[in-house]
Amino acid sequence: MVPVAAQAAPVTSAPATATSAESAPVAEPAAQVPAAADSAAAAPAGGLADIVVTATRRETNLQSTPVAINVLNTQALQDRHVQSLYDLADGAVPSLRVATFEARQSALTIGIRGIVPLDANQPAREQGVGIYVDGIYLGRQHGLNAALFDVERIEVLKGPQGTLFGRNTEGGALSIVTRAPSGEFGGRVRVGVANLGGYNGDVHLDLPEYANFSVKLDAVKQYQGAVTSNPLPGQVGWGYYDRVAARGAVRWQPIQGLTDDFSYDYGQDKNSPFYSQLLNANPNACAPGAQSASPRCVLPGTAYTTLTGAVRPILPVVQVNGNSRMRRADIGVVQQPSVDETHGFTNVLKYKATPDIELRSLTAWRGVDVTQWDNSGGAHRVPLLNCTSATCNFSRYSLADLRQRQFSQEFQAVGTVSAFDFVAGLYYFNEHVSDDAATPNSQQYNQATGTVTTLDPCIGGGSAASPAGWQLGCRQIDRASEVHSKSYAAYGQVTWNATDAIHVTAGGRYTHDKKEGVLHFSRNINYDNPANASIVARNGYRPLDESWDRFNPMVTVAYDATRDLHFYAKYATGYRAGGASSRTSNYQAFGPEDVRSYEVGMKSDLFDRRVRLNLAGYIMDRDDSQVDISSIQVTATGSFNNLVTINAPGTTRIRGLEADLTVNPVEGLTLNASYAYTYTRIPKVNIVNSVTTNGVTTSTTVPQQFFIVFTPRNAASGAIDYAVPVGAGNRLTFHLDGNYAQATQTFDQFATKADASLIFNGRVALGDIPLGAGAQKLTVAVWARNLFDEQYVYRRDPSNSLPGAPTTNVTSGSISNVLGDYGNFNTPRTIGVEASVNF
After folding, report:
1. What is 499-518 written as a DSSP string?
2. How many Å apart are CA 59 and CA 21, to the nearest integer?
3. What distance in Å separates the CA atoms of residue 630 and residue 38, rounded to the nearest whole number?
4. Are 627 and 706 in contact (CB under 8 A)?
5. b/e for 159-184, b at 16 or more Cβ within 10 A?
6. 166 with 487: CB under 8 angstroms?
7. pTM of the prediction?
8. Cα 694 vs. chain centroid, distance in angstroms?
């Protein structure tokens, strides 16, 4: 991921959160625009400013571009103190949902319009929303939370972008556009401090053009201490991050009409997951006996008539707290920071073949290296509850390594011929991903003394002869896999400007995807060892060797009723590639999913451009939805609980309405409001439970309801921005935003919801303070995120509060492992001060 740090807004920028426009992905860095120190992005005297986007691969006015887009410019990012993509999880754009993977902060789940993958953390599974930096697709969600560099704007393209973006953009695309070298000397330095031991700094330096070369250098540092402290001395707490990043960009313009932009970036993100605390104890009142006597103790997808075993009491060392964020863990555990490293180069070559036709080449090589050390659950997961002997081991230390490399090459032709605007392209993508994982226990509990000790880091819960620790060379590998993916595409799109008011766009993209994958380990069985061939065969293992072909069309009709009133209707399609689940012993494959979208929209500037109102309504139908289910898989070496990805039969329905309103009632004051309504419904899936005892197989088929995660039915955001001149040319700016999201599921297979949220952020800044006789200007600001310290559970896991999956009997469910729901609270209030100097 290209790190970034927000900078002052362009003088021509729009209000803090610009809304609605539509089209294809941004394909190139935008030209340098002069910046004003900490401008409030207030409207000009004539009303709201135009917003320039490059969503159609050319510069267009957002209001007359017929697709739904939200734009966050540099000022909006600065006002909200957005340092990474996870800072958008509060809901700045209501239809954009961002959440962290439980194991660490750097792996993000990103969804738009109800297209949200739960477990795209697997190497052979794809995202449903494409993430682009300067037109380059990022193949993995790993490393997405790296520090942002010098961002000019973030464009949120909503709805399928299959024609110009390609596969894995069913819900839309998130396009980050960074600031290119200007060729003029200048820059900015910013430093800040915050609570939780936080501090940040960034430097952006533009060098004068020399011999047709312009150079820009960026460096970023971001740090925050742990939100929840770890009682074990010398071990990292939870919710910590330490990010560093650097980027160099060179623009070469040897002749008129030829521009080559080359950049290289490196980022390192050390972080720890948010604390997974125990929220309650046996919340479903599970008890042994007839299942009908415990009506809430029901595992989805099963038809138990009897509950066996017993729910044991919570041990005295374990704290139950579902009301507030724990700032100190109840039990200290071994944990060191996870580390994500992102790196790569991008080269964008543009040549004006004629005044109306531009040829482009986009070349990129990128890599992600991840080392995960996650002990987020501590004492709040089984097997601590099963401490029936003198001592028991607990605390699942989730260790994982991932290495990803990708190369992409895209050729584009963009231009105008008579009344036709066109874009055509060829695309190639090659990715190699490998990973491994181990889950040793790190701590031991003594029943007699009530004390907790740390296990030997090599032996762990194993033995000297069979170590099961967390040190390298001592791990029992739970799983390891390797995947090669290739994608080829050809696309074209033409807009016929039939009249000054009527515009018809049609396009299509043909894609051929090829994916090959293998398991190297599963449940500590080495699949590459010929001695294990019989076990591998009994597990039903098959390497992944699949290919898919798709043609994704798009048609849009746009009507400009007046200069300030625009309507459009759009049909678009998209698809997400299939893959295989590396968490299963047979490497169970799943197929692609496809989306058809029907959308209508209106964009308007009213009352002398003092009011901007944009509306969109859509219907999306998704076939063969990829959903995740936890189930028991019988293997040659035992029965194990696996997270399996399947294709839900039938058509998933997604329906939505979106509204964006910007008002500039008086000079210096801008009001923004956005709302998104999203209805989702996955058809019920028939789940077959089978167990074999003494050669006899018993099965039950149970219809199960699945859910789309992290997608609230109602979400809204609002902001107030006010700027007033003070003193001799100084500016005082005020910003306040509020963001609401209704409660939503966080797991496909459970109806259990997390909490609703209402988060406020604010900033007050005094800018344009001259420093001496030069052009240097100082800005000082005070900012706050989660201003009122709202506490809510954004991720709630009920899997430890329900009966286990069937292992020996499809009608009897064991409650011996029932503990309670556990979950993660949001980040607490953070407050900081910062100063920046523009020169």
Report:
1. SSSEEEEEEEEEEEEEEEEE
2. 12
3. 49
4. yes
5. bbbbbbbbbbbbbbbbbbbbbbbbbe
6. yes
7. 0.90
8. 47
> Which residues have a Cβ under 8 Å from the Cβ of 596 and sit 6 or more positions away?
571, 572, 573, 620, 621
- The neighbour count for residue 837, using CB atoms within 10 Å, is 16
Q: Which residues contact 729 (CB under 8 A, 6 or more apart)?
A: 768, 770
Report angle CA 738, 243, 793 to the nearest 5 degrees: 40
**Distance in angstroms (rounded) separating the CA atoms of residues 716 and 740:** 5
Residue 801, beta-bridge partner list: none
**Nearest partner of 395 among 378, 382, 380, 383, judged by Cα:** 378
- In this structure, what token pair is assigned to residue 99? 């959440």
581 CB burial (10 A radius; 0-12, 13-18, 19+): buried
| Rg, the chain, Cα only | 27
- CA–CA distance from 565 to each of 24, 56, 568, 604 (Å)? 21, 20, 11, 4
Residues of the chain below pLDDT 70 = 1-46, 54-58, 120, 383-386, 631-641, 695
Structure tokens at 363: 């070349």
DSSP string, 212-265: TEEEEEEEEEEEE--SBB-SSTT---BS-EEEEEEEEEEEE--STTEEEEEEEE
pLDDT at 4: 34
Separation CA 495–CA 163 (nearest Å): 13
Strands of the sheet with 812-814, listed across from one edge: 289-290, 306-308, 812-814
Collapsed DSSP state (helix, strand, coil) of residue 291:
helix
Structure tokens given for 631: 């189930």
Round to whole Å and give the CA distance between 107 and 747.
17
Which pLDDT belongs to residue 636?
A: 66
pLDDT of residue 690: 74
